[in-house]
Design a protein that fits this description.
With about 110 residues, the protein is an all-alpha fold. About 85% of the residues lie in helices and about 0% in strands.
Length: about 110
C-alpha cells in the first residue's frame, strides 16, 4: 500500500513535468528531465516511508540500477508507442502501465536485501 501511495505521487510528478515540457523540448528530452525530478522524490520516500530502511551504499546502488533499467524501458516503450501513432502527450500513460509493476519488483529486490 505504501509503495502505491509513493508510486502514485511519483508518477503524478513525472507526468506533470513531462506534460509541461513536451511542447517545449520534445519527448526525448521531456522524459529524462521529468524522470530525474520524480526520481529524487521517489528515492527519499522509498527509503523512509515505503520500505523503512536506512540509506546505504548497497540499497542506493540497487535503487539507481533498478531505476536505470526502468528509465531505459520507459524510453523504449515511449518511442514504441509514439511510433505506433499515439499522441506523444498521452503515450506516457501506457508506458507507466507497463513499467511501474516492473519497477516495483526491481526496487523491492534492491531494498529488501
Amino acid at each position: 500500500m505504501r509503495f502505491c501511495m509513493v508510486g502514485v505521487v511519483a508518477v503524478a510528478i513525472q507526468f506533470a513535468c513531462y506534460y509541461l515540457l513536451i511542447d517545449f523540448c520534445g519527448h526525448n528530452i521531456a522524459l529524462p528531465v521529468s524522470y530525474l525530478v520524480s526520481l529524487s522524490f521517489n528515492y527519499l520516500l522509498t527509503l523512509r516511508f515505503t520500505f523503512k530502511v536506512s540509506s546505504n551504499t548497497k540499497n542506493g546502488v540497487g535503487f539507481i540500477v533498478s531505476h536505470c533499467v526502468n528509465f531505459t524501458l520507459q524510453f523504449l516503450f515511449l518511442n514504441f508507442f509514439i511510433g505506433l501513432g499515439m499522441d506523444r502527450r498521452w503515450a506516457i500513460v501506457p508506458v507507466f502501465m507497463v513499467c511501474v509493476p516492473i519497477n516495483f519488483i526491481l526496487v523491492r529486490l534492491s531494498m529488501k536485501r
